[in-house]
Every structure is written in structure tokens, then in C-alpha cells.
Protein: DUF4406 domain-containing protein
Organism: Salmonella enterica
Amino acid sequence: MKVYIAGPMSGLPNFNRDRFNEIAGLVVKSGNIPLNPAILPDGLPERDYMAIGIAMLQCADAI
């Protein structure tokens, strides 16, 4: 199952990547595939982050 990892990012230190990556590890340990927006690189326009996030959500089996 593909699991999208959702949570707060904007305005948090390092965009909350440590927590997102921690959860991604748990998703993998449970035998599933994480769709983790925290792996995206810095420096993209906000619209690109949104487009990529929406594409990830459309592919997800669970959130």
C-alpha cells in the first residue's frame, strides 16, 4: 500500500523533515511504501510543491 505522509511543514524548523522521515521509516517497517513530501528539494516555487503533493496524494492508497 502507498501511504502519503501528511502533516505540518511550513514555518517549522527544517520543514519538519525529521518527523516526516521518522514516519516514513515506520511506513516502510510496516511493509508499505511511503509517499513523503519532505524528500522534495528546497528552492522550488510553492506551486510546484503543491502540484507534486497533489500528484502524490492521487497515487496514495492511504493518508
